[in-house]
Amino acid sequence: MYFDERRAHFLQDRIQRRLKACQIDSFHNYYRLLTSREGKAELAALLENLTVNETSFFRNKPQLELFQKTILEQMLHHKQERRDWTLKIWSAGCSTGQEPYTLAMQVCDALAYYYLRNPLPFDMPSPKPLIPPPWKVEILASDISYSVLRTGQEGAYNEIQMEPVDYMYRLRYFDKVGDTYRIKQPVKSLVQFDFHNLKTEFLPQRNDFIFCRNVMIYFDDAEQKRLIDKFYRCLNPGGYLFVGHAESLFGLTDRFRMIHQNNGTAYQRIEVEP
Ligand SMILES: C[S@@+](CC[C@H](N)C(=O)[O-])C[C@H]1O[C@@H](n2cnc3c(N)ncnc32)[C@H](O)[C@@H]1O
Asked: Is the C-beta atom of 144 inside 6 A of ligand 1?
């Protein structure tokens, strides 16, 4: 994790809180605890305090429109031509799950709309499944914080968190239990939550789309460059990377082509000729 001068105070404050909670009187002794075998649980607790988990459903709508209406539509078309019926999406730094579930709902709608206009040449089971066979959709949602992963896995959201979700989406994809909206099981089953630290080398491969939004801002330049190179390798040829509204790949890489449409931005992997 990278903390520049502007965030040094935040770092100090959060570490001090942990010192107090552990009844430790010096940074040095706290450091010794963190690096010891017994300190594993405390390291996890510190991490929870240092990550910024702000997120929401349908965050950055122009970008999601570009994804669903243009890029995903083209991808479905190309894949169907090649008889490749798999779609793999990775939400890297997924926080409490609103991002991967938004993508799951968008994919379900996009597939339904696509086959309304281009019926498949075989019979559809009745009632129609959310994902028309033979398509297989996998959405991996990863984070470095175990507590946000647990919340995502639970898939239950309150009225305030549901504010950006319009009533058609609520009706189709959520069950209301008391004051809580729960993601319906068929949508939930498309999303797999897992721990991944983006700083490590071994990251999920063969993705068609990677969403890593509002995560890189916490990395320094060198680490951002390394991460983008890793994302390049984690994407299928022609795959797409989506970063946050305040983030860009400008000056960090020349291995992606920028697509900008109606205020939405995406980056497509450029293929090098052999
Ligand atoms: C501000 S949230 C963004 C959530 C979502 N992508 C969005 O845009 O709404 C940033 C998330 O990145 C996660 N994160 C930070 N550093 C990470 C790392 N090295 N590896 C994986 N996840 C990380 C944090 O735990 C947090 O949940």
From this structure: yes
52 lines ligand 1 (CB under 6 A): yes
pLDDT at 218: 84
230 lines ligand 1 (CB under 6 A): no
For residue 155, give the nearest of 189, 110, 124 by alpha carbon. 189
Which residue in 213, 186, 101, 193 sits closest to 148, CA to CA? 193
Q: How many CB atoms lie within 10 A of CB 122?
A: 8
pTM of the model: 0.91
CB 184 within 8 A of CB 170: no
Quick: pLDDT tens for 180-197. 999 999 999 999 999 999
Nearest to 82 by CA among 246, 229, 238: 238
CA distances from 257 to 20, 203, 211, 249 (A): 49, 22, 16, 10
Within 8 A by CB and 6+ apart from 178, the residues are none
Helix-strand-coil percent breakdown of the chain, rounded to 5? 45, 20, 35
CA of 88 to the centre of ligand 1 (A): 19
Structure tokens at 35: 């690096």
Residue 212 has pLDDT above 90, yes or no: yes
The residue whose CA is least distant from atom 27 of ligand 1 is 95
* Structure token digits, residue 247: 């983030």
Q: What does the H/E/C string look like for 164-192?
A: CCCHHHHHHHEEEECCEEEECHHHHCCEE
